[in-house]
Amino acid sequence: MPENAVVSDERTRVDWTEWQRRWDDQQTGYLPHREARFEAMFDVLAEVLPEDFVALDLAGGPGSLGRRLLARFPAATCVSVDFDPVLLEIGRQSSTDLGDRLRFVDADISRPDLLDLLGLDQVDAVLSSTALHWLPPHALVALYGRMGTLLRPGGILLNADNIPFGRERGRFQEMAEARRARHAVAAFGADMVSGWRAFWEAAEAEPALAAVSAERNRRFADLDRSHAEPILALHLAALSDAGFGAVEVVWQEFDDRVIAAIR
Length: 263
Ligand SMILES: C[S@@+](CC[C@H](N)C(=O)[O-])C[C@H]1O[C@@H](n2cnc3c(N)ncnc32)[C@H](O)[C@@H]1O
Description:
With 263 residues, the protein is α/β, with parallel strands linked by helices.
């Protein structure tokens, strides 16, 4: 049997919805209010956009946000971009019911040629959840600049993430981190990274994900995440500088926030 046929056979055997659920479960362990945060983002979209909008989800992983968005807005479409081949595979395989409404793009969102790779002329909404803290400050600033170009006037950017308080508010940051640690211990026990680790160990052990796991290991081998995460003031200033008129935190739980910026 050709190798491709074996891979395709493995794929049909797998319960991809269950993989999507596993991803959501471990993310929710770290972020117990994750669903409320998605809802807050969608409430903002409902206020500012018509029903048939086009959204871009930056670093969308397996498409958790996209699936929820399309359920809430049946006339919308979404492009979800990420550079993790395992999460892209889970996203693609678990979203076949959505057809073209949810499209996955394999790309590094910090690349200068991101707009060319996306192949989108214009979008109505740019969204992101639990992801942009992966970017160093200079890459975040450049990304916001590119999104200011891609979004149509009147469109909206919503970034949901743990966005640190600045140094002058360090006491609040300590509180936020202590609270986050309590949530993770409640979900996973004293070894707080076990939820994340268990997901990735299971993915490595899944034969249908063997090829994409190998590709992930190759891509992530030299990934440098030693940078300081961009603080709130930097996000707000970078968005203003990128041409966004109204920039505000519209939802917040300690340092977990949704920033909204209208183009
Ligand atoms: C914690 S996950 C969140 C995924 C998804 N947004 C969610 O809320 O479930 C962070 C995601 O950011 C992606 N990511 C980080 N840096 C990226 C980059 N430079 N380009 C594309 N994706 C990136 C990772 O691959 C991962 O899928």
